[in-house]
Write a structure and sequence with these properties.
Blueprint: H1 10-13, E1 15-22, H2 28-38, H3 45-49, H4 63-68, E2 76-81, E3 84-90, H5 98-104, E4 110-116, H6 123-134, E5 139-144, H7 153-164, E6 167-170, E7 172-175, E8 183-186, E9 191-194, E10 205-208, H8 223-239, H9 245-249, E11 253-258, H10 267-277, E12 284-285, E13 290-291, E14 299-307, E15 316-324, E16 326-328, E17 332-335, E18 340-343, E19 348-351, E20 354-357, E21 360-362, E22 366-371, E23 380-382, E24 399-405, H11 411-424, E25 428-432, E26 438-442, H12 446-459, E27 463-467, E28 472-477, H13 480-489, E29 494-496, E30 502-506, H14 509-518, E31 523-525
Parallel strand pairs: 1-3, 1-4, 4-5, 5-11, 6-11
Antiparallel strand pairs: 2-3, 7-8, 8-9, 9-10, 12-13, 14-15, 14-23, 15-22, 16-21, 17-18, 17-23, 19-20, 24-26, 24-27, 25-26, 25-29, 28-30, 28-31, 29-30
Amino acid sequence: MTTNRPELPPEIARRRTFAIISHPDAGKTTLTEKFLLFGGAIQMAGQVRAKGEARRTRSDFMKMEQDRGISVSASAMSFEYKDFRYNLVDTPGHSDFSEDTYRTLTAVDAAIMVIDGAKGVESQTRKLFEVCRLRDLPILTFCNKMDRESRDTFEIIDEIQENLAIDVAPASWPIGVGRDFIGAYDLLNDRLEIMDRADRNKVAETVKITGIDDPKLAEHIPEEQLNKLREEIEMARELLPAFDRKSFLEGHLTPIWFGSAINSFGVRELMDGIGSYGPEPQPQNAAERQISPEEKKVSGFVFKVQANMDPKHRDRVAFVRLASGHFERGMKLLHVRSKKPMAVSNPVLFLAADRELAEEAWAGDIIGIPNHGQLRIGDALTEGEALRFTGIPSFAPELLQSVRATDPMKAKHLEKALMQFAEEGAAKVFKPQIGSGFIVGVVGALQFEVLASRIELEYGIPVRFEPSQFTSARWLAGPQDKVEAFANANKQHMATDHDGDQVYLTRLQWDIDRVERDHPELKLTATKEMMV
């Protein structure tokens, strides 16, 4: 985050690429919706919810998400607001979709953490926060649902500071809670924000005032609440750090806004906050060197592959984060892994659920490239340079099950479906050396359901997942001859993943320890970098 970097071209400098992380039900989908509403991407937030029985938000497009009301697949949305172009990458909040979420965080420059005013910091939030920590991502916090009974403001802030070991600087301060919640005091701009309960789509009105002692406040806030507010703000200013942009950009401090997404309250202030203080597109790391956004040549990496976004066309869309340059439609880019040029003739920009053809995009943007399976997670696209982007993780699955098509005639089709999901990063697929069938590994149990439902919906193959004798998978690396000798001696434990890499499957931690002890020249790893 050094300041001696050259000025970015204005088009790149106005980009803000971020993700929203939260525990399920903290209100992430509602917040996303309000961002799109203010960004003019949708006309009215109500329309998103109330399409008869279809009650679905624009950002959740898979059938299972509509049924369960959870965001399963991370989609990307771009919209303009004031002087900025926001690229919001939606992360699955459900605990079982962790790997996808972790990967999404490699494609953004900042994250918004949404917490529920009544529940505070929950387990899932903590996990995601750790990942942001690994990457030193700047984090903005939004404490949602202030219009319901919520906890004491100082208590919430303490919990964040203790649990997540990060300093918290209040950007706004709530006035009243639950039924008595009337708005917030904007500490960064000394303004009073009043919430309108009557119309949920109406943006809160702001009252210009001069500081917390302005007598004008009494016209809007009942006396008792006003005295409490003045007292609390005085305490906050003494006890809590003031907002410091440098410390925020380095990932040590998070500003917190209090609001109610469903009532459109506090959302605009949060958006202004990302615009004014959030990071512009950051340099990205590759094995060879660091890539700066202002470089003239285009480069980018695939952080997600989504199959069958449009069931009418069996397409896959690779989500690419542009790391540098100014991309124009029809450009020929080098697909580094296959060393082949690729003409990107119909790239897509995501404007909520509507895809629009992208004529151009800049470093920091996310574009979708429809393809037939050539692009995989971790792939680099460049204007000729052989770059390999680093830091896109692939985790060892914690749950392994074997899978069979209930109709044996469809076994061949099942293989194709599984390979597609493996490339998409939705699951690990292992082909055991001995016996027929496949073993599918996932990070959370709900993923088996998601896979079964998608294989049936998208390929028309009903499948059964059954418990397998194995519980863990480790990638095997080392000198070629040693790996082969080991594989031959342990055939019943060996399998290959969809890239053809050797994987050792086992039930017991003891086995893993034994291999590490008896074969020091071999490396067993629980993650494999998604690199070419």
